[in-house]
């Protein structure tokens, strides 16, 4: 009886702590959403923590008129799609030989890949700026695409190689005996078995590219080429005292990444765990 009561108390405490932690985590998001549905007068009179008397959904339609968010969204989508496509393609082509083929310098190539994981963007941003300037790529969409492809390749190869190494090598040998080429092996045998890590990689790369703030800030000065995070920062400086519009812009900016994580969260966790355990 005493043990049952003690277990009940411990479980209750665990649930209380978990609920309090969840509330503390989501309360800033709820506050931003609540603020986006108010007017400035409501905030000044009732305070920022009060619930809105009337939900002003027109803030979400107004944001597209007063801000250049259609252009920012378009640029972010273009950059994210191109970066993800090239990263997945190049990572597959890089991870396959490192996982299955034997050639001289294989270990050195893999060490170079691992070294790429340790290079922060802060360290190379000045040389990158000078190189892009000399090539005439500053203030172009390629100034955002090419560096992000290069920065995402090392982790992508590392993740996919770890998963590929656990796939039975006998499958490839049987396919080669039947006359299959390496390209067919990769496309018809390996890729269908890479669904969890590929989904994780796509989501990670897309979210990281979507939220990248440093590169567009430094490399892009043209408002028509700004992506969503930089556009949101520019919008905040323009509407400094209009808190509902700033909150609305923040919700609109964060919505795609939040939805992506909610939809693919199981695939993200399974892909990361698989990739970690394979190594």
TrEMBL record:
Family as reported in the entry's similarity comment: Belongs to the binding-protein-dependent transport system permease family.
Location in the cell: Cell membrane
Cellular-component GO terms for this entry: plasma membrane
Residue ranges of the TM segments: 12-33, 77-96, 108-129, 141-164, 185-207, 243-264
CDD domains, per the entry: TM_PBP2
Membrane-related topology note: Multi-pass membrane protein
Keyword set includes Transmembrane helix: yes
Domain of life (superkingdom): Bacteria
InterPro entries: MetI-like, MetI-like_sf
Biological process (GO), any one: transmembrane transport
Keyword terms of this UniProt record: Cell membrane, Membrane, Transmembrane, Transmembrane helix, Transport
Protein name: Carbohydrate ABC transporter permease
Source organism (scientific name): Cohnella zeiphila
Positions of the ABC transmembrane type-1 domain: 73-264
